[in-house]
Amino acid sequence: MHRPRKDYERDLTWIKPSFLWMMYRCGWGLKQDHETVLAVEITREGFDWALRHACLSHYAPGLHADQAAWKRALRRAPARVQWDPERDVHLNPLPYRSLQLGLAGEAAGRYADEWTVSVTDVTPLTHEIHALVRAGDTATAERLLPGERVYPAGAEALAHLGGTTP
Question: What SS3 class is residue 165?
């Protein structure tokens, strides 16, 4: 017997590991329907599983045999990756990219039911940092940013996604 799919398994759920890229996307929590900013902690095992089972969100000639092969892989993949320019505190693009990880089907189910460790409302922090940036106090704003570091995925985990490690 096949179980019915839950609502969150039907559409893409995006993991945006970069705080400042998320601020760019949600307009510091001021865009309509993006007023609440949540920090979701997930397991390392879950994130690694999603990377292993992901497909690049666009066709890349050096990575895919041809466009048809990429389309087949994308249809089968429970996760997809896109690389977007990282952002500074003024939300200007930086010369390097951050990974965005879209989850659907099995990956979205695992994310919701197995991988999630904690959910924290960081909307007040978002607004505090934004106010400091608007006031020109970028040094204080940068000190309040959540700590981020390069994810130690290893080159083999990112090779099929067009990524490299430093």
Answer: coil
